[in-house]
């Protein structure tokens, strides 16, 4: 596995971790997949209180050296709520300290200064080691960093894939310059890779995969982690998918091949642009609703096993 520094922290993290969005809370298959990821060097495990699966993640990482990332939901951004949410996540995960605690989405209704003061308080209390954000714009990151007195934002978790490359227009350069780690979620475009959802991109991935004796998935992930300061957290709910993802590290596309993929027409993420982000930022109650939906979905019978992301 290849490693990189987390922000300016001096901490080493793998270039590939495992994401758990939509993984059921009681899935033995997912527990096995997470353990396979950890044993394969993908030791960073990402979850969130909104995912309603922290207990499952806690079972999977028990006794391991996993680097744990979880997120506080926007409806818990008031100072007293941040502290309660952190304690609840620690209990569900069965750990004493969260390695990287992220604000899941920006909020327009709760002052970022209040939230960041609370986050620094968690660091001082030893409950959190590093602070980060998710789905924040450059301007939102600057505001969040200005609200911190002692700590620095170590990472911004954003959607980034060979299909969705909007962060390459400013965000990526900013994070590289400021040494803020980019954590790419949905790096396989929500299952669109290796499916032919965007034919021209898929044709390039297929051709490069053949040239390197890799799979299109491995090429797509390698494109991301070959960028300075970028790591990826693909979701994989089976041992075979985890091992395929792990094979994206340890080799590199050529500069010419990187440019070829980068020159292809990308698209913006509907999750972090336009009306969707406006609603997420201005209506924090939605995150509480999403948590309830996830709990109900996990409890539903005959659910499908989660795929790749």
Count of folded domains: 1
Tell me how many strands there are. Answer: 10
CATH architecture: Alpha-Beta Barrel
Write the CATH homologous superfamily. Answer: NADP-dependent oxidoreductase domain
Roughly what is the average pLDDT, rounded to an integer? 89
Note the quaternary state here.
single chain
Radius of gyration: 18 Å
Structural class: alpha/beta
Shape: globular
The low-confidence parts are none
Structural notes for this entry:
The chain is α/β, with parallel strands linked by helices and 309 residues long. The protein has a single domain, classed as NADP-dependent oxidoreductase domain (TIM Barrel). The chain contains twelve helices and ten strands. It has helices at residues 28-39, 54-61, 79-93, 112-124, 138-146, 171-178, 199-212, 216-225, 239-246, 255-262, 274-282, 285-299; strands at 3-5, 12-14, 18-19, 44-46, 67-72, 98-103, 128-134, 153-159, 181-185, 230-232. The strands form two sheets. The chain has an eight-stranded parallel beta sheet. It has a two-stranded antiparallel ribbon with strand order 1-2. The radius of gyration is 18 Å and the shape is globular. The two termini are 20 Å apart. The model has no long low-confidence stretch (mean pLDDT 89).
